[in-house]
Amino acid sequence: MFQDMQEALLKGKKAEVEALVDKALASGLPAAKILNEGLIKGMDILGELFKNNEVFIPEVLVAARAMNAGLVKLEPWLVKDKVQPKGVVVIGTAKGDLHDIGKNLVAMMLRGSGYKIIDLGIDVSAERFVEAAKAHNASIVALSALLTTTMVGMKGIIEAVRAAGLKVPVIIGGAPVTREYAVQIHADGYAPDAASAVEEVGKLLA
C-alpha cells in the first residue's frame, strides 16, 4: 500500500493519494506510520530525483500538491495521536522581493518531510521574521530572495534575529544566493534548491 501511495504521489495523482490515505486509515494503520512510510518516504524519493535532474519544478509542484492533499486527510489524526512535527520552520521572502515560487516549493517539500511551516509570504521585514520566530517558537528561520537587490537585505534579517537574542539557525537560498554569500553574512545554512533545503534543515536540527 505504501509503495502505491509513493508512486501516486510521484505522479502527482492527488485523488489517488487521498483515496490511499483514507484506505490506510480505515485499515487501522497509525497516522504517523502512514505519514512516515507513505508521504515522507515519497517526498524523499522525489527530492533525490529532483537533485539528480530526473524530475523538474512542474513535476515537483504537482507531486507536492498531491502530498499536501494526503496531509490534509492525516492532520486530524496526527493531532489526535499527539504526533509532533520534526520542527517549526518560519519561512518568507526577503523585504522588497515579490517572488515566491522557490519559497513555496521549499515550504511544500519541508511540510511533506514532517515540518510545521509558518509561511510569512513575500516582502517580509526583519521585524516580522523576528516576531514570528518568537510567537511560534521557531526551530529554523528560512529566507528566500530572487533578486540581487533584495538579497542584500538578508544580512539585516539575520542581524535582527541575533539582536533579538534568538538562538534559531537561519538558512538562506534563492537564485542569486551562493554558499560564499551565506558565509559572508553569517547565515547558519544555505540551500541551492528545495531538495537540498530539506537536507540542510535536517542537518541544522540534528
What does this structure look like?
It is a single chain. The chain has 10 helices and 5 strands, in the order H-H-H-H-E-H-E-H-E-H-H-E-H-E-H. By secondary structure, the chain is of the alpha/beta class. It folds into 2 domains: about 80 residues, Methyltransferase, Methionine Synthase (B12-binding Domains), Chain A, domain 1, CATH 1.10.1240.10; about 120 residues, Rossmann fold. The chain has a 5-stranded parallel sheet, with helices on both faces. The longest helix is centred in the N-terminal third of the chain and has 24 residues. The relative contact order is 0.13. The model has no long low-confidence stretch (mean pLDDT about 95).
Q: What would you say about this model in short?
A:
The protein has helices spanning 2-10, 14-26, 31-51, 57-80, 101-112, 126-135, 148-151, 153-163, 179-184, 194-205; strands at 88-93, 116-119, 140-144, 170-173, 189-191.
Order of helices and strands: HHHHEHEHEHHEHEH
Radius of gyration using CA atoms only: 17 Å
Please name the CATH architecture of the largest domain.
3-Layer(aba) Sandwich
Distance linking N and C termini: 30 Å
Count of individual domains:
2
Total DSSP E strands? 5
What kind of oligomer do you see? single chain
Strand share of the residues? 5-15%
Major sheet size, sense and barrel closure? 5 strands, parallel
CATH homolog superfamily of the largest domain: Cobalamin-binding domain
Globally, the shape reads globular
- Which structural category fits the helices and strands? alpha/beta
Specify the CATH class of the largest domain.
Answer: Alpha Beta
Helical residue percent band: 55-70%
Low-confidence stretches: none
Total helical elements: 10
CATH topology of the largest domain: Rossmann fold
